[in-house]
């Protein structure tokens, strides 16, 4: 386990471009593996998770080439995955395991999916339910990985997603794409819609009527050329860092601004950030723009995040919680019990690490109430091998007194290997 020392900063300033969005990279990797032809992807995520998806595609018969300039070429299987020689290793990636389950289920093979310790603790029943309705036989161990999928022809279903999860939605859409008949689904909360855009980019037909999505089965995909937008969830760490310093000025180039992800920008504004969005363009249905943020004089307010907003901001909640003590009025997070079953129990770990830094707070089953106006001190941070906990506390450390040591800091590489280098570039000491 590596220890990363983070020293306080005096200001946060500069201009950077970030590696490609993790969610979009997974989807492009998987659909490229199923499609006919060679897909070329620039600015693909450098995180370990989307590379787990690429490795699974290679095991399923796609040819994956990682070029020196970072471009990824995937020559797909034209709709015919092969029987993999061994288990499909999803590493730390819940996205890989859940979305891939739907993609491979219609293929007439037996697949085993495995993951690391954290992934093996995460709930998989949520994908078994709809996939079994479609006719898949799926074996879990007490609701968890390892998963065995006995694939074969699927029939379309009508499905209402009981929990807000883009991964579950995607598993159903990917299976529905290859099923017999038209699959339809509706969501209780509208989650990120990258799968819908990616499916259309690869040539699939997908319809939305009001809140209902439907996808006709038996469709074939065609390879694309695409640039993955910069990752807004990675940008969140730096946007929050900028809020901590009254003289900050941060420019992030070519960031994904998909409206189903962009409520983060509203929260940053509510907290006192002044955001300018420049040069917005659209690629394969995804919006990409340059974001400039600085702080409004006198403002570093608090806010409450609850209801649908908690589901839409689920990946950004740890860093918002980590900066909460420095706000004027504090931050309350509710309706976020999904945080307890991410790569770690993120509610418990945020509470433990904030307390280690001297903060007072209240932990709820579904969130946290963190009063503002608190000065934190440097401490020993337990990352729990969770990338977002690692990075969230590196940001909290920038305004603490004294040095902070983050244990297990290598976890940042799951989504953002460049994080500590860029943090150093942007922090003025
Ligand atoms: C993701 C969806 C979210 C999110 C995860 C990525 C995706 O998970 O937390 O980091 O790419 O679809 P859930 O679908 O479990 O909410």
Instruction: Just name the CATH architecture of the largest domain.
Output: Alpha-beta prism
- Number of helices in the DSSP assignment: 14
The total domain count is 2
The percentage helix is 25-40%
Overall mean confidence score, pLDDT: 97
The name CATH uses for the topology of the largest domain is UDP-n-acetylglucosamine1-carboxyvinyl-transferase, Chain
Number of extended strands: 24
Tell me the structural class: alpha/beta
Q: How would you describe what is shown here?
A:
- The chain has 429 residues and is an alpha/beta fold.
- The protein folds into 2 domains: 218 residues, Enolpyruvate transferase domain (UDP-n-acetylglucosamine1-carboxyvinyl-transferase, Chain), CATH 3.65.10.10; 206 residues, Alpha-beta prism (UDP-n-acetylglucosamine1-carboxyvinyl-transferase, Chain).
- The protein is 30% helix and 27% strand.
- It has 14 helices and 24 strands.
- The strands form 6 sheets. Strands 16-17-15-2-24 form a 5-stranded mixed sheet.
- α13 links the parallel β22 and β23.
- α1 packs parallel to α2, α1 packs parallel to α3 and α5 packs parallel to α6.
- The longest helix is centred in the first third of the chain and has 13 residues.
- It is globular, with a radius of gyration of 21 Å.
- The protein starts with a strand and ends with a strand.
- The mean pLDDT is 97.
- The structure holds shikimate-3-phosphate.
- The site of shikimate-3-phosphate (S3P) has 10 residues, from α1 and α6.
